[in-house]
């Protein structure tokens, strides 16, 4: 069963494995140690860790949205409208999952007849100005906490300006 020979073999195997690991550690230190004869040489390849990238990220320039809106292309906004068309309609009075967006620019935030708005918009006396729409489209849940709109947001300010220009041109 369990005799001294089995115990001796087990201890010997453990010591042998430890010896191999220590020998491997010693070889690795000799190869990669910085105090060796090659320590004065420069590194052949430096990996960018992003320390300089953080400094550049802080210098993001804020763009004037009114300037973007003035230069926006409504035709590009029509292409972007396809994302909105899944839940909204451009036909006056035809609501979908979301309220219709015909005449949305300049309309009251909760002023669509026959649509049950979230509480955040139902009693809101404010109007949808291009600036308000820009902030809402960029981050709906951040702009109006409690909104039922499931859209994650449009990151590009140029795209938002084009979409708002397209929506504004629909009721002319």
UniProtKB/TrEMBL annotation:
InterPro entries: Cyt_c-like_dom, Cyt_c-like_dom_sf, Cyt_c_1A/1B. This is C-type cytochrome. The keyword Iron applies. It comes from the Bacteria. Pfam families: Cytochrom_C. Residues 72-171 form the Cytochrome c domain. The keyword Membrane does not apply. Keywords: Electron transport, Heme, Iron, Metal-binding, Transport. Transmembrane segments: none annotated.
């Amino acid at each position: 069963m369990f005799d001294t020979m089995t115990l001796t073999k087990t201890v010997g195997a453990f010591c042998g494995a430890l010896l191999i690991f220590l020998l491997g550690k010693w070889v690795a230190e000799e190869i990669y140690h910085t105090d060796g004869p090659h320590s004065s040489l420069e590194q052949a390849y430096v990996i960018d860790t992003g320390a300089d990238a953080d400094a550049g990220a802080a210098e993001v320039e804020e763009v004037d949205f009114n300037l973007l809106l003035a230069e926006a292309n409504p035709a590009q906004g029509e292409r972007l409208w396809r994302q909105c068309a899944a839940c909204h309609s451009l036909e006056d009075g035809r609501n979908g999952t979301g309220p219709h967006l015909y005449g949305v620019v300049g309309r009251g935030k909760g002023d669509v007849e026959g649509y049950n708005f979230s509480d955040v918009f139902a009693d809101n006396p404010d109007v949808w100005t291009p600036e308000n729409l820009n902030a809402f489209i960029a981050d709906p849940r951040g702009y109006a906490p409690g909104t039922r709109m499931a859209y994650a947001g449009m990151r590009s300010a140029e795209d938002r300006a084009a979409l708002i220009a397209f929506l504004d041109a629909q009721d002319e």
